[in-house]
Amino acid sequence: MQVIATYFDAFNAGDIDGMLACLSDDVAHHVNEGQVRQGKAAFAAFCAHMSACYAETLTDMVILTHPDGTRAAAEYIVNGTYLATDDGLPAARGQTYRLPAGSFFDVAQGQITRVTTYYNLADWMRQVSA
Question: Average pLDDT over the chain, rounded to whole?
């Protein structure tokens, strides 16, 4: 499904506007260990915060799609560097991490209407606390 590939290409390029272009105006963003964010503005604010705290690239990407084009899932490895301390998390010292993760999507009229992301927070905490 092209919109999902485009979304992840934009992520890896650090292109928040490119990611936003893939989303519906009322996108529901379900984050790991957090509250659901509604709309592009909330998604953009989340991305800006994440870019300030983390430098991440996704590799080993596998995208699966439903034949009717309404749902998709992706599995990948997050390769990251912890740049700046995030609230409630260990202090950032430039630690690197590799973390398996996955995302799930709803798609309508060629745009992503839901993004749900999962990863093992305990694994990430272990890696950056070592």
Answer: 96
On whether the pTM is more than 0.85, the answer is yes
Q: Are 29 and 43 in contact (CB under 8 A)?
A: yes
Residue 35 burial (C-beta neighbours within 10 Å; 0-12, 13-18, 19+): exposed
CATH code assigned to 2-129: 3.10.450.50
- Two structure tokens written together for 16: 């928040």
Length of the chain counted residue by residue: 130
Which pair of structure tokens corresponds to residue 31? 């984050």
Collapsed DSSP state (helix, strand, coil) of residue 50: helix
Whether the pLDDT of residue 109 is over 90: the answer is yes
* CA distance linking residue 70 with residue 76, whole number of Å: 20
